[in-house]
Every structure is written in structure tokens, then in C-alpha cells.
Amino acid sequence: MVDNNGTRAPRNSNPDENSASETDSSVEAFAARRVQESLSLERRHAFWETQPVGQFRDIGDTSFPEGPIEPPTPLSAVKQEPYNLPALYEWITCDMDTEEMCTEVYILLMNNYVEDDENMFRFNYSKEFLQWALRPPGYFKSWHIGVRVKSSKKLVAFITGVPARIRVHGDIVSMAEVNFLCVHKKLRSKRLAPVLIKEVTRRIHLENIWQAAYTAGIVIPTPIATCQYWHRSLNPKKLIDVGFSRLGARMTMSRTIKLYKLPDSTITPGFRKMELRDVPAVTRLIRGYLSRFVVAPDFDENDVEHWILPTQNVVDSYVVESPEVHEITDFCSFYTLPSTILGNPNYKTLKAAYSYYTVATKTPLIQLMNDALIVARREEYDVFNALDVMENESFLKELKFGPGDGKLHYYLYNYRLRHPMKPSELGLVLL
Q1: Do 327 and 286 belong together in one domain?
Q2: Is 399 a catalytic residue?
Q3: Are residues 237 and 125 part of one domain?
Q4: At 97, is the secondary structure helix, strand, or coil?
Q5: Where in this protein does the record put region Disordered (predicted)?
Q6: Residue 340 CA to chain centroid, in angstroms?
Q7: Which one of the listed residues 155, 192, 290, 431 is annotated catalytic?
Q8: Is 309:301 a contact under the CB 8 Å cutoff?
Q9: Within this chain, do residues 421 and 276 fall inside the same structural domain, yes or no?
């Protein structure tokens, strides 16, 4: 479950694949191919066939009711003891309040977490980021789960959950957001991942929560939405030098640098860094905006203070305060997720900003996002990434974002949507 795969270099899709799908216009052939693909995917996902998630075989069947797939179990019937691990390993609860534990988790993820398919980049979540991501209001320490080698005490696997209120259509559902599933590279054959997923599910159930949201860069049963990553070059020379992007046809480096150059200063009057006093206004803006989407978080002021208020080197947020009436009319935010550059003698880190939540009411969205790009470039980010969720598609091409070849698939556990969503119907950003 649960990894974000977005550090792929932008690349055009295969033109041969496109032309093949256009010439094969037979509806029957297309349907047969989809069934065949679904069957082969099911065979690859025996674990997920046992879980209360949408199954490939049910795609297109609208007879199922929308909502929970299985009813809650009485808490007394939830398994009270952890699942069995291979004899050499033991469960631990990771106390992310401590510097020592944070460092252990950081090292495990830094060396073993999500890489691009070409093994050129690997996510490098900072310790500050991990503490922010894993300690929101009402979090449970018991949902931060590690596996140690009994003899050496080395941390070799990790998975987490944090509580969230997610609105699905009109219903607000208490869920867990599950993330950071990571198994040491040398233990990938031990089949630890399904045990980690079952154990975090057990601990979530013990808190009387029965649904979860998660993302993955791979297809498992069954996505509620599939989103595309887009990348906006801020430091094009470095991105080309490290292989994240390529020099375009008939383009020189100097022309490319000129193409992506941004103004030195933001242009929106009243554009400034968000402060604690802005939390009530930003909460009103974000609640009103997210009510438009099929699936979105239900944020209150405590959530906004935690998730949106700026934290150095973790999350940046800017508001637009009307110079005339001093009303907060708009805001934008992005979080910091660098990647380690593998095997490059000149560069070690790719500093990436990821578009988070943005609400534009008085300022055009394109102008607001362009100001976000300007401040990110000023802070020496190399690239600005965005998913095509919410209204993001409206500014991507205009602001010179290019499509990556990484997809991010969204999933709900024990909750069925009758129809998959378009990315523009999704108002949820998972880290």
C-alpha cells in the first residue's frame, strides 16, 4: 500500500501505443482486453483479493451500494495480539517524538523507500517532515509501526497511519491515512508487506476506525482515481544534468534557461507568508473550496494550523490579504520533499516543491500559482511538482509544467465508490 511515485523524469508517451488504441475501435475487443487485463491483475494481487476493497472483477457493476463494504466488527472481536512475524523479527511502536527514533526511521526510508523506475532518484523525507506528517491532531502513537531484527535491533520495516476525517460525497467518514510502507531492500522476499498492512489495519480497528485512504505508484485493486504528475522546471540546467528532464528537440541550454525564467518578485498585491492569525480565514476558504469535490478532507482550524501553517523546510503557505479591507481572499501552499540523486558525482539532492492546497477566489488561479513558482525559485527549489487534482489542470500547461510519466493511484479501504473519479473530482492530497 502506500507509496508516492512522482520522481519520474518527464517523458512523452509511446506514439505506437497511442496509434494502436486509436485503430482498435471495436468496443467488444476493448471490453475483452479490459477483462483480460483485470484477470491478470487479480492473479498478481492475491492478498488484495482477501481485503474489503473494490475488486477488478466488479468494475462497471453499479449494483453494489456505495459506502462501507463490510460493517464494523465489535471491538471485542478485533484480534488483540499482533500478527506473527518470522522468528528473527519483532514489532515495535515507533515514538516519533524522539530524535533517536526519528533518525532510525529517516535512515530506513532514505535508503529503501520509493525510487523511480530507472533508480536515479529516491525520496528523502526529512526528519522534520516525518514529524509533521505523522503527528497531526489526535494522532495515535500505536499506528507508527516498525519491525526490528531481534539480535541487532536494526529497524528493517515501517508503516504508519494517521487519523483523518474524509468527506465522500455528503458523508464525513473517520478514516486512517496509511503511508510510508517500507521494507528493507534485502528483505523484500520475506513477504513482510502484507503482514505490515494487516497489523496497521488491526491497530486502526482497535480505535474503532474501519476505513482508510492511501496512494500507490502501482495498480492494485482498485483505484478510485488515477492522477498524473506534472513538473515545472525551476532550475532547468540542473534537472537536465542529473537526468530528471531532457533538453527539448531543437533547444539549446541557454534557450531552455530563458524559457523557464521567472520574475524576481511576486505580482499579486497583498501576497505574503501565512501567519497564525490567518488560520480562521484560511479554514473558511479551504472548507468552502473543498466542498466542491467528491472526496476531500474535512479540515477544522486545528487541522489547518497543523497542515497549512508554514513549517520551515516542510510546508510553505502564502495568503493574499486585500490591501483595502485586509480580508484574506486567497492562499496557496506547497510542501518540501527532496529526492536523493543516485550515482551523480556533481549533485546529491534534488530540491522539490509539491503543490498542496490552493484556493483562489479574487486572484486568478494562474497568477496565484505563478507567484508560488516565483517564491519557490527564490528559495532555490529545483522543480515544482503538481498532480492534476482539483482545478490544477487549468494552470499546468499555461505555466509551463510538463507531464511526467509517473502516475499516482488513490485508494479507499473498506469503502466503495460506484464510479471511479476524474482527478478534477478529487480534493485530497496525500503526502
Answers
A1: yes
A2: no
A3: no
A4: coil
A5: 1-26
A6: 18
A7: 431
A8: no
A9: yes
Give a yes or no: residue 205 inside a domain.
yes
Q: Distance between CA atoms of 111 and 381, rounded to whole angstroms?
A: 22
Residue with cell 518470522: 86
C-alpha–C-alpha distance, residues 217 and 116, integer Å:
10
Nearest to 226 by CA among 235, 236, 215, 237: 215
CA atoms of 120 and 344, how far apart (whole Å) = 9
Identify whether residues 105 and 176 lie together within a single domain: yes
pLDDT in tens, 14-69: 323 333 333 333 444 444 444 444 444 445 678 888 899 988 878 777 778 899 99
Domain count, the chain: 2
CATH number at residue 252: 3.40.630.170
Q: What is the pLDDT of residues 377-406, one digit of tens each?
A: 999 999 999 999 999 999 999 999 999 988
Domain end, chosen from 214, 248, 275, is at 214
Task: Calculate helix-pair angle for 99-112, 127-134, nearest 10 degrees.
Answer: 110
**Does 5 reside within a domain?**
no
Provide the residue range defining the domain that includes 356.
226-425
Sheet holding 349-350, edge to edge: 121-123, 339-341, 349-350
Global pTM reads 0.89
> Do 279 and 178 sit in the same domain of this protein?
no
Distance in angstroms (rounded) separating the CA atoms of residues 357 and 335: 10
Question: CA 96 to CA 103: how far, in whole Å?
Answer: 9
**13 by DSSP, 3-state: which?**
coil
Element (H, E) at 199: helix 192-206
